[in-house]
Amino acid sequence: MKTPITLQVRKLIHEGVRRGLSFEQTARLAGVAKSTVGREIKAAGGRDLYDPEKAQRRADRTPSQKISDAKAERRRREKLEEASRQIMALAEKLAKAQAQG
Predict the structure, then answer these.
(1) Residue 85 and residue 67: Cα distance in Å, rounded?
(2) What residues in the chain have per-residue pLDDT under 50?
(3) Where are the domains of the chain?
(4) How far are the Cα atoms of 9, 14, 84 from residue 34, in angstroms, in the given order?
């Protein structure tokens, strides 16, 4: 089983990111594996978005909260896709109306 990463370690990872260190250098600073640093930063959406407190809140969620979050994200994406389809349909109607008129 993996050892959970503490907020203190996440703050050290953030410090490495802020200073522009490589994953390897950041891992040495935080006392974790390079792959751990990579996973943490990837989960946050990249170096520019890494926030240790937000990462800790994400890690502290229970499995049922994670499932609920995933379902909510799926519903949000479905709504965005439907809205995009509706916009495209309206754009096609507008283009036809302009071509005729």
Answers:
(1) 27
(2) none
(3) 1-60, 61-101
(4) 13, 14, 39
